[in-house]
Amino acid sequence: MERLKECAQGERMTVLMSLALDGMLDSSDRQRLEEHMKTCVACRTEWQAMAKVAALFEESPAVGPPLGFAVRVERRLEDQAKKKRRTFGGLAVATGSLSLIGATVAAVLILVLGIAAWRWFDTSPSLQQGTQTVTQVASGVGLMGKGASLFLGDLLLRYGAPLVLVLGVGLLVLLGVWAWLLVKRPGGTHHNGFA
Q1: 46 and 81, same structural domain?
Q2: Residue 47 buriedness (CB in 10 A; 0-12 / 13-18 / 19+)
Q3: pLDDT tens-digit profile, the chain (195 residues)
Q4: 97 with 168, same domain?
């Protein structure tokens, strides 16, 4: 089979051919296309191939989607959106709960370490002198520093154990709320929110 020479106006003529097949070509462009195809073998061959394909499409009956296709697609899209909302909601609950738990654990640790350090300072004579020095420096800063130092020391000695207990109960309550939110979050069809 002999090789056809490429047409210099090939792209423009292909656009015109496509418009002609769709019935959207005006008379002047239609005449220009016909004149060009009289002299250009490559464009004439392309026109014949395009016309055959267009004829095949016109002869074949148009087949629509099966019955209920659109409804199934919409349901799947809704299900995917629900899953995304549940996942995002779960992550939000988990992140918020973990931050609250982290803050509570940090507070408990600081309190426990403070009580342990205060009791340790109380038993060591050299550390007691250091503590007294810190107290003197705090009093040198002003009445507020001394008052805060005395208040915190007294608070830790008198109410250290109850504060640890209260913080522990708070942590348990936060864990309980987190578990309840995880199980009862909205958007699920089952009791735990998962589909």
Answers
A1: no
A2: buried
A3: 445 677 778 788 889 988 998 888 888 989 998 898 888 888 899 999 999 998 888 887 877 888 888 889 999 999 998 888 877 777 777 777 777 777 777 777 777 777 777 666 655 555 555 556 656 555 555 555 556 666 767 766 777 777 777 877 877 887 787 777 777 765 544 444 444
A4: yes
> Which residue type does 79 have?
D
Q: 47 lies in which domain range?
A: 10-59
What is the value of pTM for the model shown? 0.33
Q: Classify residue 172: in a domain, yes or no.
A: yes
* CA 140 – CA 57 distance, rounded (Å): 97
